[in-house]
What does this fold into?
Amino acid sequence: MYLHLLLPDRAQVDQLFDVRMPGCVSLYLATDPADGSGAAQIEFRNLWQEARSQLQADGRTDRDLETMDEQVDELAGDEDFWAHQARSLAVFLNDDGIVEFQLPNDLASAVHVSDRFHLKPLLRALTFPPAAYVLALSQNATRVLEVLPSGDPVPVRVPDLPSDAVDAVGVPSISGRKPHGRVQGGEGQKMRLGQFSRAVDQALRPVLIGREVPLVLAATRSLADIYRQWNTYPGLVGTTIEGNPESLSDGELAARAREVIDEVHAEALREAQALFEQRTGAGRTTTDVADTARAATYGMVDTVFVDLDGSVPGTVDDESGAVTFAPEDDAVAYGVVDEIARRVWQAGGTVLAVRRDDIPGGGDVAAILRWAPHTP
It folds into this structure.
């Protein structure tokens, strides 16, 4: 089973965060790549009807909604699209158009309507990227795989990727037993493996450029050490799948890579939680929604933990950051925590979209501040 992913990049999230106009609809629903019953299409239409009711309650007529009705009908009727899904689908639409992302995360169905898009669940894919690449590297073979949270890994075609070390350096052997130029023996072999590593890195650059997906290296310890000296991709994780990858199948590499990525994400979360505790002693944290909104408005938030599934209806003042809470979501109110995430994101802070149990204090939000608030 292959998950058909369409993940957002940071530029796309930036564009969605910038949208301000009445009638922005955000729909999230669970999908199953193995389900051919049409249940997801029915759920999508049901969610749209719920959003439509909110828009009508805000004064929109059937004629006002014609454009969005057409967009929904076109997507809902695209049988090929629905036959190739991931675990969740995020759809954003307004009078200007529609955009969708196919996500590997398990997200609950949700409807949000306001003057901006609800992007907090989408940020999970950027907080802890669910996909990864595996570079299986040995002197005799190279291969690159895309690994998803479930399903079989997918071989990635990399133009100009050397098939092996000999192919990369253009010599009959890299064993180093015969003189080659000015170097020979172990020194010559290390040099040629360095050339091999550099050639692999250069081939990978066009494939990985602009992506924020972890790269897991599978190699012997000695070759891994050499490759890391030449690597230029910032997403290369520190843990190596050690040993000769030629002895591992694609499925075995994928399973090992998932273990590595899970631990990388878990360690990143533990470090953020530990930093929160450390900063609490210096008065540089808060778990209050209203205080966090004000701090985010003034660019004070370095890192914010937000509840991936929860929603706090209301509005946040553009100038002061003051929060006005609302009893329920409607076409006017929006998610306050979602707006906090937007302001932190746009101020260059880090947004961690996590489950409530992973938020320090167990609330809707927790923030690490860049400086302690001034007290009278």
User: Anything to note?
Assistant: The two ends are 60 Å apart (CA to CA). The CA atoms of residues 168 and 196 lie 5 Å apart. The longest helix spans residues 250-280. The first strand starts at residue 24 and ends at 30.
